[in-house]
Structure to design on (625 residues):
C-alpha cells in the first residue's frame, strides 16, 4: 500500500518485515530515525522475536552483530560517517568470516572538518572491506533493497551494505510502498547459516591463517563477490516478479542506448540528473544516464556494455580520493579499457552542497562542447580556494583552512591568528 | 529544475517551531489528494531557535529532482523575526504566495514592498501563533498556517490538511491543531473575500 512517509520510517518497517533476530546499532545522524523506528517496533512487540541491543559504540554494534550472526541469528545494524569508520576493523571481520549481516549506511561526509551532511565519503572509504555495496536512488528502492540484501547476503554468506543518501533520502517524505509482510516472508526464507556456533557442538571460527593459505582464503572472498554479479540481478528479477516493480540490480540505463554522452552516478542524484537529461534531450542533445546500483562487486561487464557506444563519459561522484581524484571513475575507466573513450571525473555534492539542475545543465553543456577537463569540481568557489592558497604561500603560519575559509564565507568561526 | 506542473513550497522557521513537520504534513495532505509530493528539510546543526528551512513539492507526476527549492511558488514563514536574519524572499516567483505568521500586517513589519511585488491578495500575514495558543495552549504556528496556506494558494483543500494533522499528532493535540488550521483557513478566506480577491481554491480548480 502506498503511503506518504519518511524514508527512514520506510526502511525501519521494511527491515522489521525481514525479521532480524538481533538489531544492534549506535545512533548517529542521519541514520538515527531508522534505528529509533526499529527500537519502537521491538518495544511494542511488532518485531518479535528480536533482541534490540544498545551498546556504547559502532565498533561494539557491529561486533554484536558478528557474534549474533555467527550464532545463527539474522542480524542488522545501521550507521553513517565516522560511525562506519569506527566499525572498520569489524567490517573486515564480518566479511572475512562470511557473515551475512545487513547494514544500512545513511551516507554522510567524513571530518575533519566535521560535517553532518550527505556525500559518499563514508562508504567509498570502505569499498574494499569485502562487503557488498548497493546504492539506492530513491526511498522506494532503499526499502526494497533491504529485502533483496538479506536474500543476497544469506545466499552468498557475505555481508551487504545498503547505501542511501543521508538527509536527502533518510529525511525525505515521499510515496513509498513498504513491502508487504506476507510477500517478504515468501521472498525471504528463514536464515539457514552456512556455519553455526552451537554450544552443543563446540567449534571455532576465525582461524589464524599464515602465508601458506592466506592468499587462497582472500581469493575466495573475491570469487564470492564475483558470484554476487549473478546473484544480485537474480534477486532483482525475483523481487520484480514478486513485488511488481523494478528495484536494484547491477546498473540501470536511462536514455543511454543511443547516447553520445552518458553521465554515470550513484544514489539519489540520479533523479536530478534524469530531469536534466530530459531537458537536454528535448533540445536534441544525445545524452543519457547510467545508474551504478552495485558498486561492490563492481559490474565491469555491465558498465562496459552500457557505455561502449558513447563518445564521452562523465562520472559524477560524491566523494574525492585526495591526491588522486575520482574513485568511481577509476573503476569505470578500468571497465572501458581499450575503448579510448574520454572519462571525465566530476566531484560534486561534497559535505551536502546541493547539486542543482542549473549546475548540472552548465556542466553537461560544457561536456557536450568538449570543454570538460579530466577532473572537475562542480560549483567549487575558486576565488576562495585561490585566496587561501595565496595566504599559505605568503605566510608560514597561515592557520587552519576550515576556519580561514569560513571567515571568507562570512560564517563566524574563531578568531584570526 | 521546476516543471511547470510542479508547485514548490519553502518553509522558514526556527528550531522547535515545526517548520520541518509543516512541510511533511503538506506532502501528506497532497498525497491524500492523489498527487505526488516530496518534503525534505535543510538541516543545520539542530538547535532550538536556529533558522530552519524545509521544502515541499507537489506534482501530478513523479518528482525526481532532489535539489532544494530555490524559486518557490509559495513561502510559509513561521517567525517574522527571521526577516532580519535570513534572505527569506530569495527566488520567490512574481506570481508566488507569501504567508507569514504575525499579528501585525505586512506593511507594519516593513514588508510592504515585498507584498507589492506579488499579485494582489497573494501576500498575507495571519496571527497563527495566537490562534494556536488559543486552541493548543502553545504558540506553535505550524499546523495553523497550513490551513491558511490551503485557503491562500488553493493547492489543497482543508479536509486532507486536517487529516494529516490528526494523523501526525495524537489527540488532543491533533484535534487542537486541526481546529487551529480550520480557523486559519476561514480567516484567510474572509480576508481574501473582503479584499475582493477571487477565491483561490475555485480559481485553481477551474484551471485544472
Amino acid at each position: 500500500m502506498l503511503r506518504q512517509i519518511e524514508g527512514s520510517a520506510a526502511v525501519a518497517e521494511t527491515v522489521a518485515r525481514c525479521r532480524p533476530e538481533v538489531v544492534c546499532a549506535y545512533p548517529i545522524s542521519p541514520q538515527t530515525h531508522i534505528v529509533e523506528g526499529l527500537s519502537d517496533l521491538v518495544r511494542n512487540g511488532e518485531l518479535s522475536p528480536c533482541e534490540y541491543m544498545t551498546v556504547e559504540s559502532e565498533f561494539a554494534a557491529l561486533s554484536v552483530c558478528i557474534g549474533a550472526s555467527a550464532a545463527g541469528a539474522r542480524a542488522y545494524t545501521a550507521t553513517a560517517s565516522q560511525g562506519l569508520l569506527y566499525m572498520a576493523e569489524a567490517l573486515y571481520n564480518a566479511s572475512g568470516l562470511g557473515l551475512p549481516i545487513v547494514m544500512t549506511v545513511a551516507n554522510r561526509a567524513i571530518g575533519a572538518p566535521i560535517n553532518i551532511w550527505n556525500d559518499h565519503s563514508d562508504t567509498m572509504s570502505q569499498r574494499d572491506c569485502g562487503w557488498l555495496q548497493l546504492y539506492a536512488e530513491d526511498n522506494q528502492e532503499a526499502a526494497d533493497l533491504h529485502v533483496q540484501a538479506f536474500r543476497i547476503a544469506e545466499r552468498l554468506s557475505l555481508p551487504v551494505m545498503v547505501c542511501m543518501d543521508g538527509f536527502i533520502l533518510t529525511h525525505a517524505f515521499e510515496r513509498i510502498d513498504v513491502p508487504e509482510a506476507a510477500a517478504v516472508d515468501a521472498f525471504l526464507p528463514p536464515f539457514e547459516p552456512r556455519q553455526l556456533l552451537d554450544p552443543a557442538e563446540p567449534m571455532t571460527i576465525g582461524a589464524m591463517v599464515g602465508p601458506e593459505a592466506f592468499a587462497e582464503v582472500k581469493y575466495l572472498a573475491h570469487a564470492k563477490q564475483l558470484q554476487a554479479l549473478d546473484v544480485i540481478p537474480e534477486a532483482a528479477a525475483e523481487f520484480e516478479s514478486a513485488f511488481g516493480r523494478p528495484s536494484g540490480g547491477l546498473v540501470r540505463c536511462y536514455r543511454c542506448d543511443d547516447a553520445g554522452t552518458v553521465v554515470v552516478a550513484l544514489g539519489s542524484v540520479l533523479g536530478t540528473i534524469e530531469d536534466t537529461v530530459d531537458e537536454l534531450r528535448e533540445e536534441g542533445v544525445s545524452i543519457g544516464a547510467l545508474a551504478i546500483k552495485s558498486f561492490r562487486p563492481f559490474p565491469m561487464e555491465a558498465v562496459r556494455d552500457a557505455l561502449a557506444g558513447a563518445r564521452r563519459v562523465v562520472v559524477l561522484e560524491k566523494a574525492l580520493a585526495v591526491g588522486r581524484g575520482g574513485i568511481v571513475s577509476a573503476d569505470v575507466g578500468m571497465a572501458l579499457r581499450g575503448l579510448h573513450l574520454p572519462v571525465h571525473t566530476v566531484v560534486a555534492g561534497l559535505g551536502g552542497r546541493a547539486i542543482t539542475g542549473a549546475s548540472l545543465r552548465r556542466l553537461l553543456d560544457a561536456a557536450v562542447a568538449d570543454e570538460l577537463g579530466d577532473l572537475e569540481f562542480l560549483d567549487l568557489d575558486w576565488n576562495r580556494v585561490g585566496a587561501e592558497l595565496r595566504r599559505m604561500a605568503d605566510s608560514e603560519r597561515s592557520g587552519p583552512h576550515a576556519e580561514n575559509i569560513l571567515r571568507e564565507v562570512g560564517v563566524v568561526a574563531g578568531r584570526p591568528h | 529544475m521546476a516543471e511547470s506542473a510542479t508547485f514548490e513550497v519553502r518553509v522558514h522557521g526556527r528550531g522547535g517551531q515545526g517548520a520541518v513537520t509543516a512541510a511533511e504534513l503538506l506532502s501528506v495532505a497532497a498525497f491524500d489528494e492523489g498527487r505526488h509530493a516530496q518534503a525534505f528539510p535543510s538541516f543545520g546543526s539542530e538547535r532550538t531557535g536556529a533558522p530552519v528551512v524545509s521544502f515541499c513539492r507537489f506534482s501530478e507526476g513523479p518528482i525526481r529532482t532532489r535539489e532544494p527549492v530555490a524559486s518557490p511558488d509559495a513561502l510559509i514563514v513561521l517567525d517574522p523575526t527571521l526577516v532580519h536574519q535570513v534572505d527569506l524572499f530569495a527566488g520567490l516567483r512574481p506570481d508566488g504566495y507569501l504567508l507569514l505568521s504575525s499579528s501585525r500586517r505586512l506593511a507594519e513589519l516593513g514588508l510592504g514592498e515585498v507584498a507589492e511585488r506579488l499579485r494582489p491578495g497573494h501576500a498575507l500575514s495571519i496571527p497563527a501563533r495566537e490562534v494556536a495558543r488559543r486552541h493548543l495552549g502553545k504558540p506553535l504556528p505550524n499546523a495553523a498556517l497550513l490551513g491558511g496556506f490551503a485557503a491562500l494558494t488553493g493547492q489543497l483543500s482543508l479536509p486532507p490538511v486536517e487529516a494529516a494533522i490528526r494523523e501526525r499528532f495524537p489527540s488532543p493535540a491533533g484535534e487542537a491543531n486541526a481546529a487551529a488550521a480550520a480557523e486559519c483557513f476561514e480567516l484567510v478566506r474572509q480576508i481574501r473575500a473582503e479584499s475582493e480577491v477571487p477565491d483561490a481554491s475555485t480559481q485553481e480548480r477551474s484551471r485544472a
Notes: The radius of gyration of chain A is 22 Å. Residues 407 and 413 of chain A are 7 Å apart (CA to CA). The longest helix of chain A spans residues 214-243.
